[in-house]
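Researcher: We're teaching a course module on how sequence relates to structure. For the next exercise, students receive a sequence and then see the predicted structure as tokens, so they can try to spot secondary structure elements on their own. Here is the exercise chain.
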Amino acid sequence: MGIFKKINFGLRKTRKNVSGAIDNVLDSYTSIDQELFDELEEALVMGDVGVTTASEITLRLNDVVRKKGIKNPADVKSEIKEIVAEMLEGGEDMGLITIPSVILVIGVNGVGKTTTIGKLAARYKAEGKSVILAAADTFRAAAIDQLDVWAERAGVDIIKHKEGADPAAVIFDTISAAKARGSEIIICDTAGRLHNKKNLMDELGKIYRVIDRELPYSDREVLLVLDATTGQNAVNQAREFAKIAEITGIILTKLDGTARGGVVLSIKNDLKVPVKFIGVGEGIDDLQPFNPKAFAEGLFDDIPEDYVEDEIDLSKIKEDVEPSAEENEVAEVMNEIFEAISEIHQEEATEEASVVEEAPESEEEVIEDVAEEIPETPEASDEKEEPKKKKGFFGRLFG
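Model: And here is the predicted structure for the students to work with:
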């Protein structure tokens, strides 16, 4: 089953809730007036679209109806669909080009975060990419074990430490392994403890600094996993997480099991955060890239049974694929590049340092050096100040 059919099937409960209510409103009118727009707005709000977004949709609809001179209420539904598709467009593509690229997955416990990471790894593996997972949710042994099972199922590598270990240390070791193995995608699991924002913020900040230090030029995505069944509560979760992390995208899970799929519109329009993936089933291939057109179609219309489309085959993800000679050569070249970059950074740090520190004696000290770079306030001096190093993408968030 291709992406359009999967999304359409996954939205069947939401379609019945949203589209059904809109049909009832339109069937009750023989002409278009302000009362019709008011009832359409109410129907959208009841479909978990959100008050602000529902109001914007009806305002746009009013403008379109006036400009096109539409008189028949039956012709309004297609215009609503066009408006919805337009509102959802933008930012849904994953811009991962560098080798390696990093995906940091955050979200509260219970939303399907670990399972989503496993499905995401399987999808990239099926696309021919080499993937490595970082089990950085070290506060729950169950999370590590669950991710380990998914890594085996998807046929990808995983780096894990024992329960209670430093999450930043797991990320550090995963990045080192990715460089050595030429992995293209690093997917990092993190603890979901929104109830303690200070600890979570400190933990994420430490992880971000490790990534900035070890992979300063890598493409990154910070994806927040939300449970669609919670409706507008999912939007509230996104708002809270946005206060402590710069979210680049949303993964909305359990969309097939709820009539509240209209929350996608509220997330995209109210929070200005794009939806990257949606979960439309429990199967390993049921995590689908978000497609605005397919979602708008699925929200209002059933797809024809004879509809044919291309699809990605995830049935062979367990097979071991030996890298070709060309792939091995590329991996070696990339390793040499990363080693050269690391040497340049070390030389710059040596030139800028006024005092040469002794090398740390243990791996724990290495992690602390990497993760906790606390700038000191320079004292007044007649000597010329050394230029400050420019912070990376994540470093700017918590520097």
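Model: If you want an answer key for the exercise: Residues 255 and 350 are 52 Å apart (CA to CA). The chain is about 50% helix and 10% strand.
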